[in-house]
Amino acid sequence: MTSTTSPAALDASDRQAERDERLVRVLSRSRGHLQLNLSETWLFTLGGVFVTIGIVLVVVGWVGASRTVLVAGQIPYLISGGLLGLALVFLGGFLYFGYWLAMLVRDGRERAEDEQADRAALRTGIDEVNKSLTEIAALLENAAKPRSRTRQPAS
User: Fold this and answer.
1) CA separation (Å) from 34 to 27, 92, 139?
2) What distance in Å separates the CA atoms of residue 31 and residue 17, rounded to the nearest whole number?
């Protein structure tokens, strides 16, 4: 049973392929414009700096608000110290989480490479054992065959 494809279906698949190619071209061009390359060290460092600054701002906001009796005077400390500090603590925490994920990915890749090398070595060892077993089987087969004796003509 053969299936025939209608010209309309071919045109639709061609249009879809063209759209896919165009999307790849557009995305590859846009990738070059924004190069935000944060290494693991930068994620760790910025995370630590933002968390530290955020904690300091929260403490400064608390100290400022605690010295002010009027609620109207405490609101600027709450906004500038408390909320901004809390935002920086969260941002630092997310950056540190990104660092942790990057470390997990790197370790996973290293582990996968090690496992691939181990599998290649194991495959080589198995191939050598198979070759040796084949040679042994051939030797045993030759030893098991009855040897043909050639008769010497009697004189």
Assistant:
1) 11, 22, 67
2) 21
Q: Model-level pTM? A: 0.53
Helices 40-66 and 84-144, packing angle to 10 deg: 150
State both tokens at 35: 């190069």
Measured CA distances, 107 to 42, 45, 63, 112 (Å): 18, 20, 43, 8
> What does the domain layout of the chain look like in residue ranges?
38-122
pLDDT tens, per residue, the chain with 155 residues: 445 556 666 677 788 888 888 888 877 776 555 455 668 888 899 999 999 999 999 999 888 888 888 888 888 888 888 899 999 999 999 999 999 998 999 899 999 999 999 999 999 999 999 999 999 999 988 887 776 655 666 65
